[in-house]
């Protein structure tokens, strides 16, 4: 066999090997029912749901998750939740007040060498005033313990506290989302959360709606 033919055979085998390692894609709706790729793409609406991607050695799972959810924590779960918040803040919070929790996720990574501050609207100076006009709220700023470079997120004036043990993440957020989520919770354990990147207008709108 001549050298040219050997070279072609090696090239062909490399291509075959590359294709054999390519991962299969599987697509699922919010109810975890498998759907076609076209239906997945047509159903994805960033105002209503987020696309989450999870991989193993052979398959890439494409999942849609609802951005908004409401429910009720009761019994042991609610008591453990309140105790966790008290421990994070180093004081006993007012159990009669509605709470708004800004939860900062671990992704994306922010370059620690940049000198800029986030222009995220939840850091606008009028945001807290507008939020407190809705109700006499307790507003908590909690971050993933994996989050780095809190300076970028205005830690010079925001009292960020780490979600030790990722209790809130495990309780509410099954999947990692970009930048974070927010939770509104009533003294009776009823809650509403919104997943993924958001602005102050989202927090204000849904707080009004949920507490009316």
Question: Can you put this structure into words, describing what you see?
Answer:
The chain has 212 residues and is of the alpha/beta class. It folds into two domains: 3-66, no CATH class; 68-211, Glutaredoxin (3-Layer(aba) Sandwich). 31% of the residues lie in helices and 25% in strands. It has six helices and ten strands. The strands form two sheets. Strands 5-10-9-6-7-8 form a six-stranded mixed sheet, with helices on one face. The chain has a four-stranded mixed sheet with strand order 2-1-4-3. Strand 1 and strand 2 form a beta hairpin. The chain is globular and about 55 Å long. The N and C termini lie far apart (82 Å). The model is unreliable at 1-20 (pLDDT under 50).
Strand order of the largest sheet: 5-10-9-6-7-8
Number of helices: 6
Poorly predicted runs of 5 or more residues: 1-20
Quick one: how many beta strands?
Answer: 10
* Fraction of residues in β-strands: 25-35%
User: Which geometry do the CA atoms define?
Assistant: globular
- Domain tally: 2
Q: Residue-averaged pLDDT, rounded?
A: 89
Largest sheet: 6 strands, mixed
The assigned CATH architecture of the largest domain is 3-Layer(aba) Sandwich
CATH class bucket of the largest domain: Alpha Beta
Class based on secondary structure composition and strand pairing: alpha/beta
**CATH topology assignment of the largest domain:** Glutaredoxin
Instruction: List the secondary-structure elements in sequence, H or E.
Output: HEEHEEEHEHEEHEEH
Helix fraction bin: 25-40%
- Report the radius of gyration as a whole number of Å: 23 Å
Determine the N-to-C terminus distance: 82 Å
